[in-house]
Amino acid sequence: MLFCIASVANASIMTSDYINDYYAKVNAYSGGNLDISFNVQAPNTMDKLGAKTIILQERVAGSTTWNAIKTYSYTNYSGMLKNRALSHDYVISYYNAVPGNSYRAKVYFYAEKGGYDTIEFITSAVKAK
User: Fold this and answer.
1) CATH number of the CATH domain containing 59
2) Which of 11, 49, 51, 74 is deepest in the core (most CB within 10 A)?
3) pTM of the predicted model, to two decimals?
4) How far is Cα of residue 93 from the mean position of the Cα atoms in its chain?
């Protein structure tokens, strides 16, 4: 019985035929510099794999509202999508973060081979330094 429960739990985790695993994070560095990095993995080689869009959001100190301040698109940053890939890592930088404000990113992972899938992921927030 326990084995059956574990199998059902694992089946619900893998919700895509195109994306096996994905992760993104924002790192803060001194001088208001941020790096947004991601990794995405597919079950087999995809025609296209990566992220189509990354939206950097800012929350001003003392506020509860997140505001989009920068949008990165694969059409302007060709490295965000990789052709013929099983996995893809990418890092993009932002240099105008305000120390004390919080930042997070919405990453729209994308994989395509015959069909396609898109998964939205929101990173944990970090405070700019």
Assistant:
1) 2.60.40
2) 51
3) 0.87
4) 14
